[in-house]
Every structure is written in structure tokens, then in C-alpha cells.
Design a protein that fits this description.
By secondary structure, the chain is α/β, with parallel strands linked by helices. Helices cover 30% and strands 21% of the residues. Strand 2 (27-31) and strand 3 form a beta hairpin. Helix 5 (172-190) packs parallel to helix 6 and helix 18 runs parallel beside helix 19.
Length: 622
């Protein structure tokens, strides 16, 4: 009977598997630190297989900083944590499709690696800009490396120290790079093949972020460095230049699979098309018929309807060969002007455009996507006060969602969610288009300044602000719906927490045998069935937004998730009739407490029942 791991995915192990699939000759076995046999890579053989492409020595192109190796290791190191459900904090919990998670996003990204691997269509993040005033998450550096004054730190709700990266810090840029690097590595795994990530940034770390993204996502997958006009008026008190813009870096996971979403055509763009000759194919506009690249075959005289003969301009030729020109002339696709005496031009019909919509431009003007003050007003209008600094306007996020070319059931992720602007953008888009795009938001529970208006209004963390905004935005957007139903999106709230399992679950060798026998269960006493159920979902790699139900079988609570994707029973001493009933349903997966079975004979009996009634069910215990 297999036990559940109850820890995040081991990305080191995953990388060994991937390399082994590409180069089976390099796959071998070795002992791990615990003395058990594990798969490993024979690096000498791998170097031989790649002998012509090994970069060695000092003269190699790379971007590095103090702490980069530690940051890389941090991304791949498993953690023993879980996500505890908060039904009371969510909205329409049982039917909700969306997810809100309170906790450090590095840990959360590790926990959802298997559940959302290759599932996210779009990621948008607005990380701290490293201005010398923004927080750089938890202090993970050794005190011997870096010392901070207590006055520049704050604490999360869990008592974790959050560090403000001051400009006087000698590791000013390095700390920021070490913060963002592992998070981007983990986020790439979540993107589907045609997925895209947008990252807001300013001048302070734009250059470094671009280099990190080139490494993580691949330089070939760079799409654009968008410029957002965030300010609508200059600041006359600026020392040098009044900075009116921010950047948004755009990368895909696989550029060959990505198709950008185009913008709706505007009346201004359509006004460029007309139909002066009443062509039955509708409005058209004309384009120059000459090109710079010379070709003798396309250098010929053309007789105009007026009788005048024209030739290509000096140093140019026509874009069409003579035969192609005559074909288009016959099809009334050449325009000689209203009097028949103009240089020939090619008619291009609005109805025959190659793409629907308009190509996006790299500059996003505030008149089209909003500015920073608009974002602040949106939060104030919903919450009744300006309780959050620097929220992005909803119109900007909706523009990015358009560029991401989301499908009806796409999932979008923001793991620096702040005031939850993305949730409002998703809901407005769904309400307007009829789509069912889902969002996953992650936010560290940074405490609110006790002297702030937000604190006076009752908010204690940034998460409180985000959750309240989602609820009030939902009510505002779907105000015609008096009751929550399938057309009104709810969300499930979770909180990052320590593992559901007691320490003896992971390190039984450190406990004496008599201590183990005294332990009734290896599960913490304060954990509920709901905690255990969603912990199992993470371990098994199931999404957190699927429907589930709880019922009683022979007076015992049984939980069914996503129809029969998983059936769980966490009571002590599960009756055999309950086991048989679960097996008869032939679920894909079934899970029980290990402590429900008093001895090996009971565990063997469990296995035999499933072999008989549901041999394809994967059965595990925790």
C-alpha cells in the first residue's frame, strides 16, 4: 500500500527523468543521502554525449549575480507545506471555479506544480519594483551575509520577517534578482505550450529582468517589451525627467505555438476604407504598387486608362510581374485614381484582410488602457476608500488578456495579486463575452500599516483588501443576479500552512519505537477532513477548483472529488462495508488514513477488496 508523499514536487527528480528520456545512456543509479537507491545522471557520460557543445572556462556568455546558485537551488527544493481551505473567506465555495491563496508565492508555486503543470494560459505579475521602499518577501539570507535594521522590516501574519530592500544595501540588485528568479522558473512549468507571461516593471530592474527572462523562457520566446503610459500629466517637480511610463515584458513558453490576440477594429481604422467605384466586394483602400527590391521581370511600362504611360519610380520596380498585374487588372483590383490618370495602386478589401482585428502596438496609451490614477479610483469606488497603492487599471489587464488570446476555459495566474485587479478584469471579461476564464491569485499576507486608512477600515493584511475587493466587484458586476448560481463566479480561498502531517510522518527514524506506538495518528489533531482532502489533491496533482460532495455511508463521512477522480474517507477504523461501497464505484483514486487500519492484515484486506472490485483504482494511505 503506497503512502502519499505530502510534500511539493521534487524538481531535481523531475529533471533527472527528463534528461534520462533524452539521453538514456546517461541514466544510472546511486545512493541518496538516506542510503536508498535512486535514479541519477552519470555526468561524465552526459558530457561525452554533448562533448561538442559544453561551455567551459571563463569566456562564456551568462548573466549572474551573488546568490544565483542558491536561488536556483531554492526553486528546486521540495517543501513540506500544504494549502488549508478557508470556506468562510471564499464565495460560493462548493461551486467556485476560481482560487485565491494567501501565502508566500514561492512556496505556493511549488505546491501547485503538479496540479497546474502545463495548464496556465496566461500569467500576469506586478512584482515589487525595487525602488528602495518595496518589500522583498521573506528574509531567506543568512545573517552573516546581510544585516538589516529592525526598522526596515515587517512581519507577515505567520510571523515571517519581510524585508525592505533599501538602496544602501550592498546586495540591492542581487537580492531582487534572487527573489524573482526561482519564482519565474517555477511559473514557466505551469504555462501551457501556447501560454504567455506578462511582467510589469520599471527602469530600476528592467534590464536585469529582461536577462533573467531570456534565461528562463528563452530569448527566442521574447515577444515584446510593451510600454504603458501610466501617467496622464507630467510632474513638474521631477529632478530630471518626469517619468510617464512603465514596461511590461511579454514572453511565451513556445513562440511557435503562440498566436497573439488581435485588437478589435476601430471606427477610425475602418474609416480608411471606402468604395468610390462601388465595387461589389465592399470598402477598400489602395496601397503602393512599387517596391525597393529590383527585379527585371517586374520592370515594365503600364498604360493608364487616360492613355498616359508610366514606369516604376527610379531605382524601384512594380511589386507584381506583368502577368500578375494583368490578372488583377482583369479582376478590377488595380486603381488608377478617380480620373484614370493616377499611378496604379493595388486595391485591398476590408472583407479580405488576412487577420481579424488589428495588430497590437508596443506602446499602450492611457486613453486606451487607463492610467495609474484610474486603477486607484477603481479600488476606491469598490471599497469606499483609497486603501491600496499603485493598483493596475482593469482596462490594462483586459488588454493583456486580449493579447494572450485566451480560450473560453483558460486559466490565468497572478502570484503578486495585490488588490486583486486581475480578478475584476477576468470577471468583467467573462460577463461581457460569455467566457468562463478562471483565475488563480496568490498574495503574501503583508500586514497593513496600523496608521493607514486601510487599517482604520478594518483591513489587517493585503489579502483582506484583495478578498474584499473580489467579493464587492462580484456583487457589482453581477448585480442583476440576486442569487449565486453558475453564472456568478465564486472563489475558493486557501491559506499556506505547515504540513497536515506530524513530523514523525517524515522522520520516523528520529523517534523511539515506544513513542511511535503511543501516537494514535500521524496527522495533526487540528486538521479537518477538508484539510486532508485538498492536501491529497496537491499530492496527486489534481486541480483545486473541481466540484466535490460529502456524504455518509454507514454513518461514515465519504468525500467524492470531481465525480470519481478521487474518493476519500478519513475516519478511524473504516468499516469494511464502506471500503466495499467505495470500491464498487470504481474511482480513479482512493485514499484513507493509515491509522484506520490497525495491522498489516487490515491493510492487505483493503488491497484485496480493491483488487476484486476495482483493480484499476490507485489506492493510497496518509
Amino acid at each position: 500500500m503506497k503512502k502519499m508523499k505530502m510534500e511539493s514536487a521534487d524538481l531535481f527528480e523531475s529533471n533527472v527523468t527528463k534528461i534520462g528520456e533524452l539521453f538514456p545512456e546517461a541514466l544510472t543509479e546511486s545512493f541518496n543521502p538516506e542510503g536508498n537507491i535512486q535514479k541519477a545522471i552519470n555526468f561524465d557520460i552526459l558530457k561525452e554525449l554533448l562533448s561538442g557543445s559544453i561551455a567551459e572556462g571563463n569566456e562564456i556568455y551568462s548573466f549572474t549575480w551573488p546568490g544565483k546558485k542558491e536561488a536556483l537551488a531554492q526553486a528546486h527544493t521540495p517543501i513540506r507545506k500544504t494549502l488549508r481551505p478557508l470556506p468562510e473567506a471564499g464565495l460560493d465555495w462548493e461551486h467556485a471555479r476560481n482560487i485565491y491563496i494567501e501565502g508566500d508565492n514561492l512556496d505556493v508555486l511549488k505546491l501547485i506544480q503538479e496540479s497546474y503543470l502545463n495548464r496556465i494560459k496566461m500569467i500576469y505579475i506586478d512584482p515589487p519594483y525595487n525602488t528602495g521602499h518595496d518589500f522583498i518577501y521573506k528574509d531567506t539570507f543568512e545573517s552573516s551575509k546581510i544585516h538589516y535594521e529592525e526598522s526596515v522590516s515587517t512581519f507577515s501574519e505567520n510571523g515571517e520577517r519581510l524585508i525592505r530592500n533599501m538602496g544602501t544595501n550592498g546586495r540591492f540588485h542581487s537580492d531582487w534578482c534572487s527573489m524573482i528568479y526561482p519564482r519565474l522558473i517555477l511559473s514557466r512549468n505551469l504555462l501551457c505550450e501556447d501560454g504567455v507571461i506578462f511582467i510589469s516593471i520599471d527602469d530600476n530592474e528592467q534590464e536585469n529582468l529582461r536577462k533573467i527572462c531570456d534565461e528562463v523562457f528563452g530569448e527566442q520566446n521574447f515577444v515584446a517589451q510593451l510600454v504603458w503610459e501610466r501617467a496622464f500629466s507630467p510632474k513638474n517637480d521631477a529632478k530630471y525627467i518626469s517619468n510617464s511610463h512603465d514596461y511590461i515584458l511579454m514572453y511565451t513558453k513556445n513562440i511557435s505555438e503562440f498566436k497573439i490576440g488581435r485588437l478589435p477594429r476601430t471606427e477610425e481604422a475602418n474609416a480608411r476604407y471606402s468604395n468610390p467605384d462601388n465595387d461589389p466586394r465592399g470598402p477598400w483602400m489602395s496601397s503602393d504598387m512599387s517596391v525597393k527590391t529590383y527585379c527585371a521581370e517586374s520592370d515594365y511600362p503600364i498604360s493608364l486608362p487616360s492613355g498616359r504611360v508610366v514606369e516604376p519610380p527610379a531605382g524601384r520596380c512594380w511589386s507584381l510581374s506583368k502577368n500578375k498585374f494583368l490578372e488583377r487588372l482583369q479582376d478590377n483590383r488595380i486603381w488608377f485614381g478617380p480620373d484614370g490618370n493616377g499611378t496604379p495602386r493595388i486595391k485591398r478589401f476590408l472583407s479580405e484582410l488576412k487577420f481579424d482585428g488589428m495588430a497590437p502596438t508596443s506602446i499602450m496609451f492611457y486613453k486606451d488602457v487607463g492610467h495609474s490614477q484610474e486603477g486607484a479610483k477603481e479600488v476606491s469606488a469598490i471599497l469606499g476608500g483609497g486603501y491600496f497603492d499603485g493598483p493596475k487599471p482593469v482596462r490594462l489587464l483586459k488588454r493583456l488578456m486580449t493579447l494572450a488570446n485566451l480560450k473560453d476555459d483558460s486559466i490565468v495566474l497572478d502570484f503578486f495579486s495585490g488588490s486583486a485587479s486581475l480578478a475584476q478584469a477576468v470577471m468583467e471579461t467573462n460577463h461581457e463575452s460569455g467566457k468562463k476564464i478562471q483565475y488563480i491569485l496568490v498574495q503574501i499576507p503583508e500586514t497593513v500599516d496600523p496608521k493607514s486608512k486601510a487599517y482604520e477600515a478594518g483591513y489587517r493584511t493585503i489579502c483582506d483588501i484583495g478578498i474584499d475587493r473580489i467579493k464587492k466587484a462580484t456583487s457589482k458586476i453581477y448585480k442583476e443576479n440576486t442569487l449565486l448560481d453558475e453564472n456568478v463566479p465564486g472563489f475558493r480561498a486557501f491559506k499556506l500552512a505547515s504540513s497536515n502531517m506530524k513530523e514523525i510522518f517524515y522522520t520516523p527514524e528520529n523517534y523511539q519505537q515506544d513513542l511511535l506506538s503511543m501516537s494514535e495518528s500521524n496527522i495533526k489533531e487540528d486538521r479537518t477532513d477538508l484539510d486532508l482532502l485538498f492536501g491529497c489533491l496537491l499530492d496527486w496533482g489534481l486541480e483545486l477548483s473541481k466540484p466535490y460532495k460529502s456524504e455518509e455511508i454507514a454513518s461514515v463521512a465519504v468525500h467524492t472529488y470531481d465525480e470519481d477522480a478521487l474518493v476519500a474517507c478519513f475516519v478511524e477504523n473504516v468499516p469494511e462495508e464502506v471500503i466495499r461501497e467505495i470500491a464498487k464505484r470504481q474511482p480513479l483514486r482512493a485514499v484513507f488514513r493509515d491509522s484506520s487500519f490497525g495491522d498489516d492484515a487490515a491493510r492487505v484486506n483493503l488491497g484485496e477488496i480493491f483488487k476484486l472490485l476495482s483493480p484499476d483504482t490507485e489506492v493510497k494511505v496518509l
